[in-house]
Amino acid sequence: MRKTNDNVNHSRQNNEDGVLDLIHTVMHQYRSMQYQALRDGPHDITHMEGKVLSFFGRQPRATQSDLAKHSGRDKAQLARLIKGLRDRGLLDAEADATDRRNVHLALTADGQAILSGLHQQAKRLNSKAVSGMDSAEQQQLLQFLLRVKNNLDATE
């Protein structure tokens, strides 16, 4: 069953009002498609588990504390996620040689395979999102979105 977006709160009276609403709607569509792929995929993995695998794929040998700093998530929630991924053989842990309290985490071969599948799915969604645009239009869209981000990052 295909879900439709609720447009009640999406004002399109002028371009200025509608830009962030549209970006918000696009992100919801993208996330919905990601979640659907995770639910229907062979890996039985949640969105947050995918985020954790992605972090340790980019930061091999990082610690749970590194992940907490990066994500801003509750340490207890992250500890449960990490334990589950370790129990399933997707993350490997190694105690720090100088401080045994620190545990470095890295993807196992199975974890890397799942992360690779998640990246392929993301590429398919990204391609679908920009289909019909040539490379110049895609570059222009990126530049516009970066300008929006920079405008919001700027202090008043």
Range of strand content: 5-15%
- The amount of helix comes to 55-70%
Q: Which architecture of the domain at 47-151 per CATH?
A: Orthogonal Bundle
Query: What is the number of helices?
Result: 6
Based on CA inertia axes, which overall geometry fits? globular
Rg from Cα: 19 Å
Distance N to C terminus: 44 Å
Question: Ranges with pLDDT <50 over ≥5 residues?
Answer: 8-12
The helix/strand order is HHHHEEHH
Overall structural class, as computed from helix and strand content, comes to: mainly alpha
Mean pLDDT: 86
Number of strand elements: 2
Question: Sheet with the most strands?
Answer: 2 strands, antiparallel
Q: Write out the strand line-up for the largest beta sheet, numbering strands in chain order.
A: 1-2
CATH topology (level 3) name of the domain at 47-151: Arc Repressor Mutant, subunit A
Protein name: MarR family transcriptional regulator
Domain HTH marR-type: 16-150
InterPro entries: HTH_MarR-typ, MarR/SlyA-like, WH-like_DNA-bd_sf, WH_DNA-bd_sf
Pfam families: MarR_2 (PF12802)
